[in-house]
Design goal:
alpha/beta; Amidase signature (AS) enzymes; 8-stranded mixed sheet; 3-stranded mixed sheet; 15 helices; 11 strands; globular
Length: 497
Amino acid sequence: MTDLHRASLTQLSAALAAGECSSVELTRLFLGRIQRLDDRLNSFISVCAEQALDEAHAADRRRAAGEAGPLTGIPLAHKDIFCTDGVRTSCGSRMLDNFVAPYDATVVSRLKAAGAVMLGKTNMDEFAMGSSNETSYYGAVRNPWDPARVPGGSSGGSAAAVAARLVPAATGTDTGGSIRQPAALCGLTGLKPTYGRVSRYGMIAFASSLDQGGPLCQSAADAALLLQAMAGFDERDSTSIDHPVPDYSAMLDAPLSGLKIGLPREYFGAGLDPAVGERVDQAVRVYETLGARVREISLPNTTLAVPTYYVVAPAECSSNLSRYDGVRFGYRCEDPEDLMDLYKRSRGEGFGAEVKRRIMVGTYVLSAGYYDAYYLKAQKLRQLISDDFRRAFETVDLIAGPTSPSVAFPLGARLEDPIQMYLSDIYTIAANLAGLPALSLPCGFVDGLPVGLQLIGDYFTEDRLLNAAHRYQQETDWHERVPPGFDESSQAVGEGD
């Protein structure tokens, strides 16, 4: 098999099973691509070459013993928010620049048990706070489709690395769209599962009632393979839900005849780039040719999603980040005068501007005299948003619309305007507030930049989302496109020794 760097997870799994390549060869191939090409993107914080090759050798031995599964020997990367035993977990922050976790997150351990090989940890917005991957202590990540533009955030490092085919797939986390929005801006398939479907144990917390881990990869078929390994109950996570995990790959080819898709009128109004809306309309027409029935619906509280999120998420962030005090672990200032100076300077020097902004907002809305006026009211609005979806799913099976209101914007364009930056996630935030599963898949290009179609499902209907995305991808090839400059033919398998 040639051009292995272009191959999907399912194709690589088949190639390994057929003996066309080994895990060690694949691992060397992708490590070589990271070494040669990542200077253009800054998508990795840490690369674990020696450990990866050890894991690849172990995967090849496992396969030779007849103990291989679909992911055995497949290289991937983890967003640097997942704790990894013995490997730095920075969360994109100076605060955790020297933190090495003594254990694996459940997502990491489950993929490791499935035989996947970890190539490294990907760059991200600091503590997952951002929509452009420009708030990282390690510098901005660049979009491989245009290095002068953002890849989206906060999982932008994972998205850029997969889009440039530096790694076949990667994990991400989604608090307000941080898997789906970078998937859209980089031309990938990204899935945010139902809240509680994937364990948050060992995933460094930003907003505990919103955070959810998921896969970033080329196709829905790849996402099904990864979610199969990642999903399931975890008694170590108090928010994990004990719900049966179906065989996601088995459902991919089911026909879409009779599938009812709702188009929220609120997603197609002011603020949406008309060219992006046109690509979404074209994708919806493909679904109609596949037998789906499309109708307009209303989610009337959509406009409340962004202000609600930016009360709830900062409130939870201020609580979760209070543990970083310069005493127990993480960054500590030099020569503090006293305990108060230690606290102030360690946090002041360890956190970046966006994190400080959200901590201050969150502390304010939780303070005496303002809790009822802001936080409690936001939680009531959150329920109204959830009720909108509940009523919608009484009449439709899936909800479709744009993932992002525009294609990738230039680096630096929105750094001085936080409100404009926050509106980048206007179509994705509501699914997090309601805890619903949602997926973004590529549906075309505008001016050479990818456009994402978002599908939202009812609780625990990831199988239906993946099925709908897969059937669309059988009719189109947007997910197979590779950014110019990153699509050179593979060198001889074994590069990167």
